[in-house]
Structure formats: C-alpha cells, structure tokens
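queue> holo job accepted (fe (iii) ion)
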Amino acid sequence: MNHPSLPTRRALLSLVTLGAASALGARAAEACGCEATTADIEGPYYLPGAPRRSVLLEAGMEGTTLELTGIVRAPDCGVAAGALLEFWQADARGRYDGRGMRLRGVVQADGRGAFSLRTIVPGRYLNGDRFRPAHIHLKVRRAGAGPFTTQLYFAGDPYNAGDPWFDATRALQLAPDHGGFRATSRIYLPG
Ligand code: FE
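queue> job finished
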C-alpha cells in the first residue's frame, strides 16, 4: 500500500533541493563576482553604424593612450562568446564626433568572452552647468537578447561624485602602461 504522505514528501524534498541549488547558485555568483553589471543611459551622442575595429586611436590623435582589456559574461556567469561590444566616447577635449566615426568602434569578444580596445582616455564635457566625469559608452549585443547599454567610468575622477549616472562598480582602475594607461573591465550581462 502506498503511503499517502509520500508524494508530499517527494514534492517537499524536491523543493528543498531546488532551494538549496538556487542558494548555492547565488553563493557561487557572489564568489565569482558575477553580480550583473548595471545599465546606464545611452546619452545623446550615440550614432549607429560604427565600424568593426579594436583600435580607435588614430595617428596624431591628441590624448593619453588607454589599453582596455576585459571579459564579457553571460547572465549565468558563463562565457558570452562572440558578443559584440560597441564603444563610443569623447576625444581628449570632451568632444564627440557627431558626423563621423571617430572614436567609435565595434569589437567582437573571442571564444572565451575576452575583448580588447586600444583608445585614449576620454575628456570631460559640460552637461548643463557641470562636467560629466570621463566615461566610455558601451552597448553589448549578443544572440537572443536585446542590447545592453552602459558606461564605464574612471576611478579617481573628481567629477564622479555628484554625477547623476556615475556607478563605482563600473569605474576602471587605471594603471600606467608605456606612457599611457591600461585598465580591465568585467561585464556581466543582466539576465
Ligand atoms: Fe557621454
């Protein structure tokens, strides 16, 4: 004779197992620093049609070189291979190219989700009566998901404080590199 409480016990056990698995998942995500990267505004200077290129630095371009390397991860912390990262930014004097593709480019992450960008540290520009801190705009596209738009900031920029969009979790740490700087970024796509 079947015990009447068995199905209930089974259901309960599977719920307990599910709960434990999701708690484990959450802990694993914390352990690997896989908190989803926060979104940010697109801003008024986005232009569609940026070319595929990982070098935005051009001969004679004013500014300090920046080698940005990073990794882009899927929502489950797995690899986001082949994701397309579109970058756009101001020049050293805080000006965007409103007609052309200067300092705009699309980079494809490799099979491990790694990407690199050679550019310059962007300048600040006035937004109303105050400067926005230096930042690089970024849009990530991957198969089966809408674009994810955010901005990368720079740790130590005096205009970070008080900027309505600044998020310290997206602030790059600059390290000196061959007369310029290098920085790394980890982008965890939201689910
Ligand atoms: Fe901007």
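queue> The domain at 9-188 is CATH 2.60.130.10 (Protocatechuate 3,4-Dioxygenase, subunit A).
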